[in-house]
Structure formats: C-alpha cells, structure tokens
C-alpha cells in the first residue's frame, strides 16, 4: 500500500446491526418464470430418455461421439446429426458427498453427485477431455464405498412414469 | 501496440456485509486510485468497469447502474463480465483501450456486493447449471468444486492435510493485509481439517468467504506514465482463453483454459521459463485446491506437484516463489470481480516495494496474476513487471 493510506474505506455490518434496527433496508422478491424449449439435440436426448435410452451424437467429420447431444461439433464446427444409442453403463469419473442444500441448509444423509463417464463415447487419450461425461447422482450405495473408477449403471423410472427428462434416470448404482 | 503501465491503485476493505452500496464502494476505490497517482477525473479518458452477475444485485444492467460511482458519466464506459475471471479481464480490457492508441489514461474499477442476495449468494449462481439436463437434479454450486477437487486429489494421490496448507498460508499472509476479511496469523492445518464438511472433500475453511468490496487501478500509456511516476509497473503480457461449455466433458483434473491463457500472456511478455522468470504469483484461489490447479495451469509447477511449493516453503512470502502474498481470496476475501483486481493491485504494490508488512523481499521484478470464471471455463492472466 502506498504510505499515504492508513485508513481504508468500507463499513462492516453484522447480523446484530440488522436485529437492532440500526440499518434500514428494502426487502423484495423477484419473480421469473421460464419455459425452455429443449431444441433439436437436447430434444432428441430427452425423447431417448423417455424410451429408456441414452443418446449420444456423432460428428460427421471427426467421428467423435459425445453426450449430451448437440448440433455442432466443438472441435471441427461441423454438424452433428447422427444419433447413437449408448449403453446405460459407465464409470465414476469423480463424485462428492454433499451435506448441504442449494440454500446452505444442512442434511444428515449426504447426496452423492457424480460425473459419470458413459460407455460408448469417444476417448481422447491422456488429454483433459472426457466426451462421455454427464452429471447425475449415485444411489443404492454406501457413501463410504463410492470410489473413482467404480462401474455404475442407470436405474430408470418405470416406463409409464417417464416424462422425457434427465430425472427419468433416478440415479446410477454400482454394478456388482 | 503501445506500452501500458499501472500508475495507481486503491481498494476498500473486503467485508462480509458492507453498509455501502455498489456505487459507494466503487467511488471509494476509484477516488483512492486517483489520489494515489495525483490525478482527477478530468485526466481520465475512459472507464472500464467490472462486476459479476446481475443476479447478486437483482439489478438489470448493474454495471451501468453503478457507473456513476466508478466515474463513468460523460466518458466512454464499458463493463465487462466474464464471471469469476472478470477481475483479471477488466484490466486486460483497460490495457487494450490504451495499447491500441485509443486512450492515454484509463480508470479500471471492479466492484462486488454479494451480501444483498438472500438467503445466501451461492444460490445466485445456480443458473450456471444447464436448465434442462442438470438443474432438475437439484444441484448446488459446491458440487462442481467438490467434484473437481476430488478428481484432482484422487488422480495425483494428494492428501487433504497437504492441500489445507494452502488455506493456512494464504490466511496467514492476509493477517498483514489492512483490508482482509479472514486474515489469521495463528490458523493451523488442524483448524482447516476440523472445519465443517460442506460437500466432501470441500470443508468450510477450504473455501473463500462471500464478501463485499471494490478495487480500482489507473492505467496510462508510456509517455504519460513516465511523466506521472518514476515507478511505473508495466503490463507485459495478457491472455484469456475459453474451454468447452460442457463442464462434464472436461476432465476436471487439469485447467487447460489457464494453460492457454498463460501461454498467450507469457509469449507477449517474452517469458520462456515461467518458473524462473516469475517472482510472485497470485493464482486465483477461491478454494485451496484451486490455487494448486491454477499454478499447474500457469506452468509454475508440473501437473500434480504444485503442492510441493507449499510443503517445501517455496510459496512463503520469503520463499523462492511467493504465492498470494496478499492473502488471496481465501484470506483477503472474495468479492468476485474485485477479488481478481485486488491481485493486480497487489502486484502493483509489491513490484513498487510499497506492500508494507506484506512486502516480498529481494526487489521482485515480475509477477503473474490469474483468475478463473464464466461457466468455470475461462482463464484470464496478466503478467506485470518493472
């Protein structure tokens, strides 16, 4: 810091200041509702989930197979139009044992989010790309036993209850 | 391209909850930066402003809303926003305003007020998850970091008690920073390991705090800088780079976005061997493992081995490569955009020998600052030297 500055601005408030009414404030809630169209590629993905199938997509030029599907290849900027049915099995790339909710409330039984590297997608060798990675949760497993490299399989909702959503897969469970 | 120098800097304290509004915080930092180089608003040709998501403030076009505090009125004004990378991108934007010959003197201000969002600022980020393929799973923001930390740790067999050394060093460094929120000269590895588990492997003290604050710097073209100061600190290289938007398609073990941004900045600065030619590093450290991740992306350590810099004392303030002598985000605080620019201000003070109690010994000549953001996929890097 330049020697001229001994004092720095910024007044720190505490919860107590609010409780004691020392601070005036305005409280408001914003309303925002959306209906997101699924589009072409994710539309196909969701339709696949409804039938109990995970779809990837193949690039017509570089032949990479990726999931989730998209209409343009990030590598060669050419169309991706050839949908591929992938097995509903994969490998845990990474996971967490999460003890809080989105609004920082505590939960006693951890949720187990994971990146699952699905089978049947392209490998790029020892680079930093996994083209078959999706976010989902793990279930039917003791949190202590989850490990990276664990083989897992999707557990689906009964066909009649599927709506064409990522939650048509309830979770992934270990393959024993 | 013209040479561009940093000639002044100022900042507010970083606090959990500030009484001041974003405009007021911006004004305090901007006034201080101008005063530090004895300029007034009349000397400023353009203003660059950085602030992170409008969702924190609940104000559409928050940059423009807060612009009067940053001195933007009656000036060419531009807000940039690349998420957490903003604090290092906004000085890059200022740099090309000046390097291009468009402007001679530019004021760069970065502000963040995270505390307005209820119940917790973390939730303001939830929309970074894909609305169709991810949000129905009920994610929270910590998931991404916990998943990344676990992948990084497991791949290289790193221990939690080693990674905790990062949080300890940065928070101890911050004890000497007059603006710090979480400086603690006596914190230990045990304190970190005993803190609450949020999303394993992430614990409370592995994470930087939600904060409010603002930072400002003044940039000048060479002919102006040499008239105004005998200690200009030059921006020698800048770089930024974007990785894929599909975060689950990135192997979280290595930040390619930092590597490519760093290579761009190093090439501009003529740096061939960063580990030898960089004397101070301010990698982005919102989480302790993230400092290690970024040091590897910055080519300051081989993959999986950045932890050694902390274990053998290299990273300490009097070590061979001091890391986050400011105290970083873990110690000073993490008002998103302001936190990145704080790192630029730190290099400015360090390279001028004005960092007071935090001064790195041995007259350091060159430093690098880096931030990370967008959908967790942008790297922004600035190399500064004297």
Strand order of the largest sheet of chain A: 8-7-4-9-10
Q: How many strand segments of chain B?
A: 11
What string gives the helices and strands of chain A in order? HHEEEEEEEEEE
- Per the CATH scheme, the topology name of chain B is Peroxisomal Thiolase, Chain A, domain 1
Radius of gyration of chain A, Cα only, in angstroms?
A: 23 Å
- Structural class of the helix and strand makeup of chain A? mainly beta
Poorly predicted spans of chain B: none
Give the neighbour order of strands across the main sheet of chain B.
3-2-4-7-1-8-11-10-9
CATH architecture identity of chain B:
3-Layer(aba) Sandwich
The total domain count of chain A is: 1
**Shape annotation of chain B:** globular
Order of helices and strands of chain B: EHEHHEHEHHHEEEHEHHEHHHHEE
> What is the beta-strand fraction of chain A?
25-35%
Based on helices, strands and strand pairing, what is the structural class of chain B? Answer: alpha/beta
Shape of chain A: extended
Mean pLDDT of chain B: 96
What is the structure about, briefly put?
The complex is a heterodimer of chains A (176) and B (386). By secondary structure, chain A is mostly beta strands.
């Amino acid at each position: 810091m330049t020697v001229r500055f001994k004092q720095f601005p910024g007044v720190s408030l505490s919860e107590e200041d609010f409780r004691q009414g020392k601070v005036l404030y305005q409280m408001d809630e914003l309303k925002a509702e959306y209906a997101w169209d699924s589009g072409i590629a994710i539309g196909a993905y969701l339709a696949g989930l409804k039938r109990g199938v995970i779809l990837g997509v193949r690039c017509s030029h570089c032949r990479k197979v990726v999931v989730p599907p998209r209409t343009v290849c990030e590598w060669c900027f050419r169309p991706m139009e050839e949908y591929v049915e992938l097995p509903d099995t994969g490998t845990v790339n990474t996971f967490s044992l999460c003890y809080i909710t989105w609004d920082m409330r505590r939960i006693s039984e951890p949720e187990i989010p994971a990146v699952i590297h699905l089978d049947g997608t392209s490998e790029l060798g020892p680079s930093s790309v996994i083209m078959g990675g999706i976010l989902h949760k793990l279930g039917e497993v003791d949190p202590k036993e989850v490990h990276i490299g664990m083989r897992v399989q999707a557990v689906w909702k009964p066909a009649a209850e599927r709506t064409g959503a990522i939650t048509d897969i309830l979770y992934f469970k270990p393959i024993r | 391209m013209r040479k561009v120098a940093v000639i002044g800097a100022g900042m507010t304290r970083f606090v959990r909850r500030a009484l001041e509004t974003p405009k007021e915080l911006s004004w305090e930092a901007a006034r201080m930066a101008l005063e530090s180089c004895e300029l007034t608003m009349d000397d400023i040709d353009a203003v660059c402003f950085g602030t992170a998501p409008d969702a924190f403030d609940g104000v559409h076009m928050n940059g423009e809303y807060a612009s009067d505090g940053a001195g933007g009125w009656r000036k060419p004004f531009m807000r940039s926003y690349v998420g957490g990378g903003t604090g290092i991108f906004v000085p890059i934007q200022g740099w090309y305003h000046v390097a291009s010959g468009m402007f001679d003197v530019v004021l760069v201000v970065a502000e963040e007020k995270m505390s307005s969002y209820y119940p917790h600022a973390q939730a303001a980020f939830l929309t970074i998850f894909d609305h169709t393929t991810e949000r129905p799973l009920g994610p929270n923001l910590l998931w991404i970091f916990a998943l990344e930390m676990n992948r990084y740790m497991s791949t290289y067999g790193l221990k939690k008690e080693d990674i905790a050394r990062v949080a300890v060093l940065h928070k101890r460094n911050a004890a000497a920073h007059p603006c710090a929120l979480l400086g603690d000269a006596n914190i230990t590895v045990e304190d970190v390991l005993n803190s609450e588990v949020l999303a394993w492997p992430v614990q409370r003290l592995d994470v930087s705090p939600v904060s409010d604050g603002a930072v400002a710097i003044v940039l000048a073209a060479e002919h102006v800088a040499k008239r105004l100061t005998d200690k200009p600190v030059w921006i020698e290289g800048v770089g930024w780079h974007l990785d894929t938007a599909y975060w689950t398609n990135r192997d979280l073990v290595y930040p390619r976005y930092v590597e490519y941004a760093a290579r761009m900045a190093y090439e501009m600065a003529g740096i061939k061997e960063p580990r030898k030619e960089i004397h101070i590093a301010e990698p982005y450290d919102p989480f302790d493992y993230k400092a290690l991740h970024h040091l590897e992306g910055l080519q300051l350590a081989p993959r999986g081995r950045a932890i050694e810099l902390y274990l053998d004392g290299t990273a300490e303030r009097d070590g061979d490569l001091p890391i986050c002598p400011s105290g970083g985000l873990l110690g000073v605080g993490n008002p998103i955009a302001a936190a990145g620019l704080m790192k630029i201000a730190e290099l400015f003070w360090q390279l001028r020998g004005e960092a007071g109690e935090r001064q790195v010994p041995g007259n350091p000549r060159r430093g690098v600052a880096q931030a990370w953001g967008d959908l967790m996929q942008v790297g922004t890097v600035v190399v500064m030297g004297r």
